[in-house]
Amino acid sequence: MTRARRGVVVALVVWCVGAAALDGWGHREPEGPWDAIVVAGCRVMPDGAPSPALARRVDRAVALWRGGAAPVLVFTGGVGDHGPAEGEVAAAYARAAGVPDGAILVEAASTSTEENAAGAAELLSAQRVVVVTDTYHVFRARRVFARYFEEVDGVGSTPEPWPRVRGALREVVAVLAYGLMGRLR
Fold first, then answer.
1. The CATH number of the domain where 117 resides is what?
2. What is the pLDDT of residues 70-85, one digit of tens each?
């Protein structure tokens, strides 16, 4: 094997190990209680329904809320490829699951993890938050949110196998990019 090929193989192995590590990081249980639970925005389907990933995130957040982890749920996310806004769709899904309006705040303009964090910080006087997102995204989300809140933890919802692998591999690049831009705390 040539030196170049060995280098490519090593890089691919490191990339895959990094993806697996990021995914594993999201399989932790947060220790509360917290001031608020923030759900990172995610895609809305063409018919306006939450994507499977967004529904999973909301289900996980509602379970934490029901368990007394925090008194408030914050749903983030603006309009992506399809409307309405991700935060609005997530809030409606939570209401259908029995969460009262008084426990819901919505941020409906953000289009990135950074904007999710900044928008949630504008809505909340809270200092201790737990962020709910996909398992592979917890590491980065936690560090981005830590730039806006005093204490942050994260918890992941586990995607189906193929989206999980694809997302974890993409997340390695996102973590590197955010790190190089100084967006991680």
1. 3.40.50.620
2. 999 999 999 988 889 9
